[in-house]
Write a structure and sequence with these properties.
- The structure holds two protein chains of two kinds.
- In chain A, strand 6 and strand 7 form a beta hairpin.
- Chain A contains three helices and seven strands; from the N terminus they run ββββαβββαα.
- Helices cover 26% and strands 24% of the residues of chain A.
- Chain A is an alpha+beta fold.
- By secondary structure, chain B is an all-beta fold.
- Chain B has a domain of 92 residues.
- Chain B is 0% helix and 41% strand.
- Chain B is built from no helices and ten strands.
- The radius of gyration of chain B is 22 Å and the shape is elongated.
- Chain B starts with a strand and ends with a strand.
- The chains are: A alpha+beta, B mainly beta.
- Chains A and B meet through strand 4 and helix 1 of A and strand 4, strand 5 and strand 6 of B.
- Strand 4 of chain A pairs antiparallel with strand 5 of chain B.
Chain lengths: 127, 154
């Protein structure tokens, strides 16, 4: 369900499954939905069909349409979202967290045993 | 019907007139309107020259798309020319565009209401992909009000 000018309506999203197993989710612009013209579902599918041709990186990826309410609201593990026919989008706890971009420096700080070593590392970080 | 005042012409006087146009008209010379003219949907056809004239409109300087959306729910709050948002991952969004740009060399910017850096990952005529990062360089979801805009020739 999502909030639009017409109140809460059902929104269909399209889940694309990438070759590495990660997923991309297309959310249609519900502001364009006119309830006098078609149902929410029909509108969403038409708009998504047109939208997916605009992004060449989606070409050839398998996809599935889902109710937006079935997508997890907690995005803290977004990198671990995966697709299965049942239950749909889920969090795969076996997917490792992405490495911290400054992990090497953090590791060096962890290994440092003297103030001088820490000073040296910090000086490099702020260069 | 539009009312306007014609600039002092060769005959040296101001002419007030009510004009009704039913066909294309070519107007030459400089005109001064008594009140600011209202133009509903002007068709700007000229592109900017190497040395643009200050204060002049060019079609490749217009905002072709802008969108304000929620970086967590990906719901669009307001927009011009955006059909959908693709959630590619944490802090990674593609805005899909209704009317394409003329080429993929337009300019795009993104910003949220929290202090994050961003980069434009991919330009395509019908979509633009933007990614947000925190101070440490880690991909981070953008805020509840995330804005992307693109300027260029359509």
């Amino acid at each position: 369900m999502c909030l639009s000018r017409w109140g809460y309506v059902m929104k269909i999203c399209r889940v694309f499954v990438c070759t590495d197993g990660s997923i991309r989710i297309m959310h249609p612009n519900m502001r364009r939905w006119n309830p006098w013209e078609c149902s929410e579902g029909e509108f969403c599918r038409k708009l998504i069909d047109a939208s997916m041709t605009k992004d060449p990186t989606l070409a050839g990826l398998p996809y599935y349409d889902v109710d937006a309410s079935s997508i997890p609201s907690d995005r803290s593990k977004r990198h671990a979202w995966r697709w299965a026919d049942n239950p749909g989008v889920y969090v795969d706890e076996t997917v490792p967290d992405p490495p911290h971009p400054k992990q090497d420096q953090l590791d060096r700080i962890e290994r440092a045993q003297t103030v001088e070593e820490i000073k040296s590392i910090l000086k490099e970080m702020v260069k | 019907m539009r009312r306007f005042v014609r600039r002092i012409g060769d005959i040296g006087k101001v002419i007030a007139a009510a004009v009704s146009t039913s066909a294309n008209e070519t107007i030459t010379g400089a005109w001064t309107f008594s009140t600011a003219p209202s133009i509903a949907n002007p068709d700007i056809t000229g592109t900017a020259p190497a040395t643009p004239v200050a204060g002049r409109l060019y079609k490749d300087t217009l905002i072709g798309m802008w969108v304000n959306f929620n970086g967590t729910t990906n719901a669009i709050s307001d927009d011009v020319n955006a059909t959908s948002i693709t959630d590619n991952g944490t802090g990674d969004y593609t805005v899909n565009i209704e009317t394409d740009f003329a080429n993929a060399t337009y300019c795009a910017l993104a910003i949220g209401t929290t202090a994050l850096s961003f980069r434009v990952a991919t330009f395509a005529v019908g979509s633009v992909r933007v990614q947000f990062f925190n101070e440490a360089g880690t991909a981070t979801d953008s805020s509840a009000e995330t804005c992307v805009l693109a300027v260029g020739d359509m």
